[in-house]
């Protein structure tokens, strides 16, 4: 939900609240996307070397922090900062939810488990823009950013406190000789 929410909130906030031109909005979104994409490989390295929590917790915490900064952004520069933090957060989580799902899936029911896992994730992805729209309609767009920030912080806390680390470190066996 948080990941899908940022894609909606950044351009809307830039346009409706800050009154920025389309080129500046595109620039802001592009900076966030470049940071996001540049972290695909490091995210995999972090997950495989240090564990899934080392990627998933900062992923959602940074996205929550970035969302918290959106209502404070009074200019393009402030929104670039918020969007950049969210881009880094999203990039750190590249593939983490699917990896976590694969790790947690019972071997004898892996397909069914991952199907339900994806369904839940897709409901969140589909629901993010709906929640943003509903909150912005009832209150204001900055309130929607704060709701998404709360969702990010709650997700980070749940991943930190309730989800077990699933990385199984393999020991290397070397020949004696």
User: What share of residues is helical?
Assistant: over 70%
- The average pLDDT is 94
Counting DSSP H or I runs of 4 or more residues, the number of helices is 8
Overall morphology: globular
What would you report as the Rg, rounded to the nearest angstrom? 18 Å
Structural class, please? mainly alpha
DSSP strand tally: 0
N-to-C series of helices and strands: HHHHHHHH
- Compute the separation of the termini in Å: 55 Å
Overview of the molecule:
The protein has one domain: MFS general substrate transporter like domains (Growth Hormone, Chain: A). Helix content is 77%, strand content 0%. The chain has helices at residues 2-17, 22-38, 40-49, 53-69, 76-92, 96-104, 110-138, 141-161. Helix 1 runs parallel beside helix 7 (110-138). The longest helix is centred in the C-terminal third of the chain and has 29 residues, at 110-138.
